[in-house]
């Protein structure tokens, strides 16, 4: 009996050992297959399954015996390498079998290949499903260790409305389920999410994500994503025709330097790509060509040939064509068109996001100028038809105007009427989308702007025929409200007045001197205007601090209303205020100051008290301390000479 037990024991041990050996062998085969998959993908070659000691042949005939996603992947991958459409079917099976335990790179490469080969699918919209369903197959470790790889799946997403919605849902799934914890990863995803919201016309959510990225970036050593979000935010202002604000944001982004030279070079190039677009749409031709020259010198100095460079050079040349057409210098436009061989193909191959739509509008304008109306209409209609899935609203609006004008010019009033109605519908849709989006955002998120936004909402209820200019105006106010919220979070806003505070003034004043030399080049100056409330101590002593606060807030309101986009208004401390007025002359600066002084004098309070201010103005010189002492002295002179005066 004892011997029998010993035999059974050793038999069981032998079975366990054999099981471990077989498992180890299979595991080695499994690991070697994964390594071969990764190596082959990185080198764009077939998987050499003959070199692997696999128990199963990776062939179509043997596919019925497959059980692992890696096996289906290897077969599908090799078939795709041979341009065999059946490869997609096997990749699909691999995709269905994958779970969170599957090797990361097998999942990542499978999703990427299926997305990139979506044109071979019976239903190309399946591309979107691979992203959303595929993201859920990654585990938390995958998200933490490989977020840059996963992020890459979103950068070149679908050019359809449905596809972008899926990409948005996928990124929100990662953020909402807290799959990642690093600020760098969160910033990266928020930046991409903002981009897709803006492309969908959802400006409020897009701006929120950009601002959150900027807010996170302020607390990080690496300013890469902050830098990119700033430029993207500037582009939103440009879309809303708030070009001066856009330029200011671009310049702030340009001032950021990165220790990593590749990051720094990319951000500078990204700045140039956006600023030249902003300038050309303002018809600032001299500044546009100056920036193009700067961009070319920068590329020559820092870059080697790459897809990014080719796309950037293409963009710059397309916008040069636009400039030359508007300047009626057709020969120079001809020169660029002739130099860029096979231009339409290059546009299709090298565009970023929806820039090809804008490029086709410009090319259409070129052919129209050359009296090739058939080609021009072909390009215009390509943009019009593409917008149904591509959501490039700016390009659609521009091309609708061109189609209306063209058919009117040839007296084809039926087609002209059709495109006119399309334009009217477009403006109605934009009125509703832009305003309701902003109103909902501001009311839900930031209560201190309630009255303004409710007024805007009421305006929409009473008249949906609101013009597109009013839409842009209301939108820009809303953007400003969002920016105020974020500035509060960054300690840049004074709580009582909602003006910029002293700390932010110190930073802006310092930045002004970094840029003043540029202003002298263009023969433009900047001015500092300092003013305070006359007899403010008496106001507080006589009527109390609550009334004193009421006076301060009233003067802040007057100041902000007058300055608007001409500069920035700050509460320097107590009853003292400062304006920074950029790129204006003395007469303009004096007019702004006089308007504020007069408006304050006409303020009406319940106790009938008449409030006045004394003002000092000086031009910004090349020394910060000298400038500040001069404006302070001029304010003192106004006080000394009887108050309620301006000294320049």
Walk me through the structure.
The chain is mainly alpha-helical and 648 residues long. Among the domains are: 431-488, no CATH class; 502-647, Reverse transcriptase/Diguanylate cyclase domain (Alpha-Beta Plaits). 71% of the residues lie in helices and 5% in strands. The protein contains 28 helices and 5 strands. It has helices at 2-43, 69-81, 86-97, 104-116, 126-135, 140-145, 147-155, 161-176, 183-199, 203-218, 224-239, 243-254, 261-281, 285-302, 307-326, 330-339, 343-350, 355-369, 373-390, 393-409, 413-445, 450-462, 468-489, 502-521, 536-543, 545-563, 586-601, 624-640; strands spanning 525-533, 567-573, 576-584, 613-619, 646-647. The protein has a 5-stranded mixed β-sheet, sandwiched between helices. α2 (69-81) runs antiparallel to α3. The radius of gyration is 31 Å and the shape is globular. The protein starts with a helix and ends with a strand.
Explain briefly what this protein structure is:
This protein is mostly helical.
């Amino acid at each position: 009996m004892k011997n029998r037990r010993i035999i059974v024991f050793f038999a069981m041990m032998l079975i366990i050992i054999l099981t471990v050996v077989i498992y180890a062998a299979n595991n080695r085969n499994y690991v070697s297959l994964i390594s071969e998959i990764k190596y082959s993908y990185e080198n764009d070659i077939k998987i050499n399954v003959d070199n692997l000691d696999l128990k199963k042949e990776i062939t179509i005939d043997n596919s019925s015996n497959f059980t692992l996603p890696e096996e289906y992947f290897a077969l599908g991958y090799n078939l795709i390498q041979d341009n065999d459409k059946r490869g997609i079917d096997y990749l699909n099976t691999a995709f269905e079998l994958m779970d969170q335990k599957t090797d990361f790179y097998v999942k990542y490469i499978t999703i990427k290949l299926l997305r990139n080969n979506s044109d071979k699918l019976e239903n190309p919209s399946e591309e979107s499903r691979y992203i959303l369903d595929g993201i859920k197959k990654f585990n938390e470790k995958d998200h933490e260790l490989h977020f840059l790889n996963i992020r890459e799946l979103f950068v070149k997403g679908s050019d359809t409305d449905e596809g972008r919605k899926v990409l948005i849902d996928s990124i929100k799934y990662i953020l909402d389920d807290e799959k990642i914890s690093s600020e760098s990863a969160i910033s990266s995803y928020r930046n991409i999410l903002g981009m897709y919201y803006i492309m969908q016309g959802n400006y409020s959510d897009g701006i929120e994500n950009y601002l959150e990225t900027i807010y996170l970036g302020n607390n990080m050593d690496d300013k890469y994503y902050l830098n990119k979000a700033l430029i993207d935010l500037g582009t939103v202002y440009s879309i809303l025709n708030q070009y001066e604000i856009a330029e200011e944001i671009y310049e702030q982004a340009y001032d950021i330097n990165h220790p990593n030279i590749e990051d720094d070079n990319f951000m500078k190039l990204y700045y140039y790509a956006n600023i030249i677009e902003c300038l050309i749409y303002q018809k600032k031709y001299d500044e546009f060509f100056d920036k193009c020259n700067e961009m070319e010198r920068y590329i020559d100095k820092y870059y080697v040939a790459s897809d990014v460079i080719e796309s950037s050079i293409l963009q710059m040349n397309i916008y040069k064509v636009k400039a030359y057409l508007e300047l009626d210098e057709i020969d120079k436009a001809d020169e660029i068109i002739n130099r860029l061989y096979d231009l339409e193909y290059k546009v299709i191959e090298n565009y970023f996001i929806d820039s090809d739509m804008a490029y086709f509008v410009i090319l259409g304008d070129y052919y129209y100028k050359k009296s090739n109306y058939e080609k021009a209409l072909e390009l215009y209609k390509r943009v019009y038809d593409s917008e149904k899935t591509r959501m490039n609203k700016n390009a659609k609006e521009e091309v609708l105007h061109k189609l209306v004008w063209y058919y009117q010019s040839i007296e084809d009033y039926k087609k002209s009427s059709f495109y006119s109605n399309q334009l009217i519908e477009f403006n109605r849709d934009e009125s509703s989308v832009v305003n309701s989006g902003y109103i909902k955002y501001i009311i839900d998120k930031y209560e201190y702007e309630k009255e303004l936004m409710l007024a805007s909402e009421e305006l929409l209820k009473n008249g949906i025929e609101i013009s597109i200019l009013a839409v842009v105006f209301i939108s820009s106010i809303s953007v400003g409200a969002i920016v105020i919220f974020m500035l509060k979070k960054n300690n840049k806003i004074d709580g009582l007045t909602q003006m910029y505070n002293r700390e932010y003034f110190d930073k802006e004043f310092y930045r002004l001197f970094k840029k003043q030399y540029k202003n002298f080049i263009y023969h433009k100056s900047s001015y500092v205007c300092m003013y305070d409330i006359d007899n403010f101590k008496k106001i507080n002593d006589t009527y109390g601090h609550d009334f004193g606060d009421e006076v301060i807030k009233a003067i802040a309101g007057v100041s902000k209303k007058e300055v608007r986009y001409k500069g920035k208004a700050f509460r320097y401390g107590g009853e003292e205020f400062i304006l920074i007025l950029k790129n204006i002359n003395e007469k303009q600066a004096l007019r702004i100051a006089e308007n504020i002084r007069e408006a304050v004098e006409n303020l009406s309070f319940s106790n009938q008290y008449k409030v006045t201010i004394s003002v000092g103005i000086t031009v910004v010189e090349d020394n910060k301390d000298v400038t500040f002492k001069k404006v302070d002295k001029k304010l003192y002179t106004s006080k000394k000479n009887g108050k309620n005066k301006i000294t320049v």
